[in-house]
Design a protein that fits this description.
By secondary structure, this protein is an alpha/beta fold. About 25% of the residues lie in helices and about 20% in strands. Strands 10-9-8-7-4-3-2-11 form an eight-stranded parallel sheet. Strands 1, 12, 13, 16 and 18 form a five-stranded mixed sheet that branches. Strands 15-14-17 form a three-stranded antiparallel sheet, with no helix packed on it. β9, α6 and β10 form a beta-alpha-beta unit. α4 runs parallel beside α5. About 40% of the residues are buried. The N terminus is likely disordered.
């Protein structure tokens, strides 16, 4: 028995010796360091930048802390009155005003609005062969541009070229919406619709879309899901256009008809579009009941806003009238449930590197390059690759004990992206 015990002990020493030799021969020992870095929050209490429920700029009822974004229409005629002369003062004033509340802007330039004149620049309206159409829309006298005129077509292309030159990297501007027809929403559902006259031809729309895709390299631009309509736009006949870098907005979100009308349009533009391009919209105005109940527990038609936002991977949703129906607490709660939210679930320091596991517990990705950072040392990859309900490890080639933060060049000074600290 004693002899057997001696054999076992010798065998154990042999195994330990072999293991030690193998570790030394195969490479350096792994050195694990303690993690004492600060940073992060226990729970999300701040609406994250470039996400949430959106109000129109100047909404006196809005509580600033319930929002990170404000929306505004813009008029072409406010920028240009003479050919080739651009005065960006109206845009600058709008962006500065919104930024003064530590919010970023969503802008939409439009030519046509129910009950109003067009915003076509005066020099074009004064041309002798430029002829607009007056018609009734929603029982109101409404004017429609003359899309048969080459000067209007040329000006519109030039306008967005100039706009991109100036604002493509401007951090006061989060997203841009573009389009034609009533409110720039890719339809004339009520009024004199005529391709090539009151609405641009499909050929011109193709040129326009390709132009914007070429000009905007940083700022994300979006079009209405109504652009799916083959009677109005070229997308179904020219599916290559689906590869252009536009996001989507839905101006009748959560309507009773959403499953039969809106959802198929989202599907047409691609179920994975949200992975690289933002999805937004506006609570629908079909009925007062809908507006009153979009943020109710079961929504207006049996499904909550939170469920809709998850299904369609919403980053922002215009809800300007919600202060008439909901508490500020409920509006902020809905904002907090819209867009990306990052949770750091694990933090390790190994061999002078920081390995940080992050989960996106939000409804959408972030769409501008965003990095984990320690003492100005950034992660080797961007958080914009992290999809909702997915987890990934990000590496910082630095192991200092300074605070862990998230950085993004698109933010305003004073804005901050939080992460939930769960490690």
């Amino acid at each position: 028995m004693k002899k057997i015990a001696q054999i076992v002990i010798c065998f154990c020493f042999f195994i330990m010796a072999c293991s030690k030799g193998q570790s030394q021969g195969d490479g350096p020992d792994i050195v694990i360091e303690p993690v004492v870095n600060g940073g992060g929050v226990a729970e999300f209490t701040n609406v994250q930048p470039m996400t949430g429920i959106v109000v129109w700029d100047g909404n006196a009822s809005a509580i600033p802390e319930a929002h990170s974004l404000e929306y505004s229409y813009m008029l072409y005629e406010d920028i240009v009155t003479e050919k080739g002369v651009y005065d960006w003062g109206a845009v600058e004033n709008k962006l500065d005003d919104i930024a003064s509340r530590n919010h970023q802007a969503i802008l939409r330039f439009r030519y046509t609005y129910v009950g109003q004149l067009t915003s076509v620049p005066k020099y074009i309206k004064d041309l002798p062969d430029y002829n607009e159409t007056k018609g009734l829309s929603e029982d109101k006298e409404t004017w429609f541009p003359d899309w048969s005129h080459q000067e209007l077509k040329d000006f519109t292309l030039e306008f967005f070229e100039k706009f991109a030159e100036r604002y493509d990297t401007d951090n006061r501007l989060a997203f841009l919406q573009v389009g034609f027809g009533l409110w720039g929403e890719y339809h004339i559902y009520d009024g004199p619709f005529e391709l090539g006259k009151t609405f641009p031809s499909k050929e011109y729309q193709t040129t326009f879309l390709n132009k914007l895709d070429a000009e905007f390299n940083n700022l994300h631009w979006s079009i209405s899901i109504d652009a799916e309509d083959t009677k109005v736009t070229p997308f179904r006949a020219n599916t290559a256009l689906l590869n252009l870098s536009f996001g989507l907005f839905d101006d009748s979100f959560m309507s009773a008809e959403h499953s039969t009308s809106n959802a198929p349009r989202f599907a047409f533009f691609g179920a994975n579009r949200y992975k690289t391009l933002p999805i937004g919209g506006e609570f629908n105005y079909y009925t007062d009941y809908d507006q009153q109940n979009v943020l109710s527990t079961n929504g207006p038609h049996g499904e909550s806003y939170e469920s809709f936002a998850n299904r369609f991977h919403v980053t922002y949703m215009i809800g300007n009238d919600q202060y008439r129906y909901q508490t500020k607490e409920r509006i902020k709660e809905a904002s907090l449930h819209t867009g990306y939210k990052f949770e750091v679930t694990k933090f390790e320091k190994i061999n002078n590197n920081s390995l940080i596991t992050v989960k996106n517990i939000g409804t959408a990705p972030i769409y501008y390059d965003t990095y984990l950072s320690i003492n100005d040392n950034k992660s080797s990859s961007s958080l914009k690759t992290l999809m909702p309900d997915k987890e990934s490890v990000f590496t910082i080639n630095y192991d200092g004990d300074e605070e862990l933060i998230i950085t993004c060049d698109r933010l305003l000074n004073g804005q901050k992206i939080d992460f939930k600290r769960s490690f």
